């Protein structure tokens, strides 16, 4: 599996790294959550800015990013604005989506930015190019809340993210059966064996997909998402039991 170093964290090596999302709505609650997460057994933080009440106010957005950076210290920070078609809170037009991500990148406060690859090649390339020009890593992403695509489709989308120069390729699906979970894990293993130029992150959402969040080291998923308080997607589990399970399943 490919690997990258984000601050002192190596993603794509050893056990999956635990990322905790912040989904609070106010500045005060966001920073309070970050302080609490900092004390937990996790590796990185995702700020889901689409939950923020004042996401469209550039001054408020910048202030929160600065406070998050100060609060988190050396812990890597992933900026994500998840749009409604992919399970987020807000529907943005392309210009707004690009502008928000550029503002986060230019703040100098984030380490990684999530880019929804299916927003279109032009949009994705603009954000990827801006991120890389500022030394920010890109997490290419796709979220399917309607079901689980075929193995070949999952692999195709993850490879497309790599082709578009994403530093991490991420895909989440909604399983309808145990076999759907196997399809995702088989696709993940195929990426590890055949297309390992970047770390890959995959998950099957909901209770049915829980195994996919725990077996990343074996099948090739480099990050798993745990909760400290409210989660950002169905099937996420609290950080402390998640960390213990990953320790028990460690290959070394």
TrEMBL record:
<dbReference type="GO" id="GO:0008652">
    <property type="term" value="P:amino acid biosynthetic process"/>
</dbReference>
<dbReference type="Pfam" id="PF01487">
    <property type="entry name" value="DHquinase_I"/>
</dbReference>
<protein>
    <recommendedName>
        <fullName>3-dehydroquinate dehydratase</fullName>
        <ecNumber>4.2.1.10</ecNumber>
    </recommendedName>
</protein>
<feature type="active site" description="Schiff-base intermediate with substrate">
    <location>
        <position position="170"/>
    </location>
</feature>
<keyword id="KW-0456">Lyase</keyword>
<comment type="function">
    <text>Involved in the third step of the chorismate pathway, which leads to the biosynthesis of aromatic amino acids. Catalyzes the cis-dehydration of 3-dehydroquinate (DHQ) and introduces the first double bond of the aromatic ring to yield 3-dehydroshikimate.</text>
</comment>
<feature type="binding site">
    <location>
        <position position="236"/>
    </location>
    <ligand>
        <name>3-dehydroquinate</name>
    </ligand>
</feature>
<dbReference type="GO" id="GO:0003855">
    <property type="term" value="F:3-dehydroquinate dehydratase activity"/>
</dbReference>
<feature type="binding site">
    <location>
        <begin position="46"/>
        <end position="48"/>
    </location>
    <ligand>
        <name>3-dehydroquinate</name>
    </ligand>
</feature>
<keyword id="KW-0057">Aromatic amino acid biosynthesis</keyword>
<dbReference type="InterPro" id="IPR001381">
    <property type="entry name" value="DHquinase_I"/>
</dbReference>
<keyword id="KW-0028">Amino-acid biosynthesis</keyword>
<dbReference type="InterPro" id="IPR013785">
    <property type="entry name" value="Aldolase_TIM"/>
</dbReference>
<comment type="pathway">
    <text>Metabolic intermediate biosynthesis; chorismate biosynthesis; chorismate from D-erythrose 4-phosphate and phosphoenolpyruvate: step 3/7.</text>
</comment>
<feature type="binding site">
    <location>
        <position position="82"/>
    </location>
    <ligand>
        <name>3-dehydroquinate</name>
    </ligand>
</feature>
<dbReference type="InterPro" id="IPR050146">
    <property type="entry name" value="Type-I_3-dehydroquinase"/>
</dbReference>
<dbReference type="GO" id="GO:0009073">
    <property type="term" value="P:aromatic amino acid family biosynthetic process"/>
</dbReference>
<feature type="active site" description="Proton donor/acceptor">
    <location>
        <position position="143"/>
    </location>
</feature>
<comment type="subunit">
    <text>Homodimer.</text>
</comment>
<keyword id="KW-0704">Schiff base</keyword>
<feature type="binding site">
    <location>
        <position position="232"/>
    </location>
    <ligand>
        <name>3-dehydroquinate</name>
    </ligand>
</feature>
<dbReference type="GO" id="GO:0009423">
    <property type="term" value="P:chorismate biosynthetic process"/>
</dbReference>
<comment type="similarity">
    <text>Belongs to the type-I 3-dehydroquinase family.</text>
</comment>
<feature type="binding site">
    <location>
        <position position="213"/>
    </location>
    <ligand>
        <name>3-dehydroquinate</name>
    </ligand>
</feature>
<dbReference type="GO" id="GO:0046279">
    <property type="term" value="P:3,4-dihydroxybenzoate biosynthetic process"/>
</dbReference>
<dbReference type="InterPro" id="IPR018508">
    <property type="entry name" value="3-dehydroquinate_DH_AS"/>
</dbReference>
């Amino acid at each position: 599996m490919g690997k990258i170093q984000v601050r002192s964290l190596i993603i794509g090596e050893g056990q999956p790294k635990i990322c905790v999302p912040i989904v609070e709505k106010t500045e005060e609650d966001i920073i309070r959550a970050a302080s609490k997460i900092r004390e937990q057994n996790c590796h990185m933080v995702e700020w889901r800015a689409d939950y923020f009440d004042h996401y469209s106010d550039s001054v408020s957005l910048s202030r929160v990013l600065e406070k998050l950076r100060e609060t988190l210290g050396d812990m890597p920070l992933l900026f994500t604005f998840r749009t409604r078609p992919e399970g987020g809170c807000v529907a943005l037009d392309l210009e707004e989506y690009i502008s928000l991500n550029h503002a986060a990148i230019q703040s100098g406060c984030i380490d990684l930015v999530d880019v929804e690859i299916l927003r279109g090649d032009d949009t994705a390339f603009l954000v990827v190019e801006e991120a890389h020009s500022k030394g920010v890593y890109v997490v290419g992403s796709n979220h399917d809340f309607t079901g689980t695509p075929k193995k070949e489709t999952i692999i195709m989308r993850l490879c497309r993210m790599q082709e578009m120069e994403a530093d991490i390729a991420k895909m989440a699906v909604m399983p309808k059966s145990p076999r759907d979970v196997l399809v995702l894990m088989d696709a993940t293993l195929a990426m590890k064996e055949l297309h390992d130029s970047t770390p890959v992150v995959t998950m099957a959402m909901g209770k049915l997909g829980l195994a996919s969040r725990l077996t990343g080291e074996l099948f090739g998923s480099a990050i798993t998402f745990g909760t400290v308080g409210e989660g950002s997607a169905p099937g996420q589990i609290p950080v402390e039991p998640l960390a213990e399970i990953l320790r028990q399943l460690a290959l070394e």
